[in-house]
Amino acid sequence: MQKFIDRRGRVWIVDIDNTTLRRVKALTDVRLLDAIDGDLISQLSSDPLILGDVLFAICKPQADQQDVDDDSFAEGLAGDSIDEACKAMVDALVAYFPESRRRLLRKAADKQKMIETRGLEAIEKRLDDPNLVDRIVGDLERKLGVPTSSGSSSNSPASSESTPDHSPSAN
After folding, report:
1. Structural domain contains residue 72
2. What is the pLDDT of residues 128-163, one digit of tens each?
3. Is residue 28 part of a domain?
């Protein structure tokens, strides 16, 4: 059995069996068994709202014993507890399957985590680029035809037809 601690300090046991799978399907319309063939793990790890709904369905018997409703449960999922809860759910789901499928699902979950980690590293590297802001602002100025610091604007000068004439003879 897996567990996680929410930001309120409550410990939740994440255990998946057939009854849990049925309850999750009934309450959330999510088929946890789709984790084998589909992108469910990716979806759950990238969408904390769906993850929270699924986790509440998994932990509902405990929540009922502790008089914790859906909203109170969701309030406990924020920050690092989201990652911890997701890991506990994936590990519990992997543990549910027989060894032959467990190996494959573990590999898929590990690859998903690797993709996620490398993707975040790539984004962080991009955000650390000291020229990023200048490039984005430069692209925006070009698209809007804003004059640059060198005094030139876009390639085509404004025509006199589209430029209003505010001289006294025009009135």
Report:
1. yes
2. 888 888 888 888 888 888 776 654 444 444 444 445
3. yes
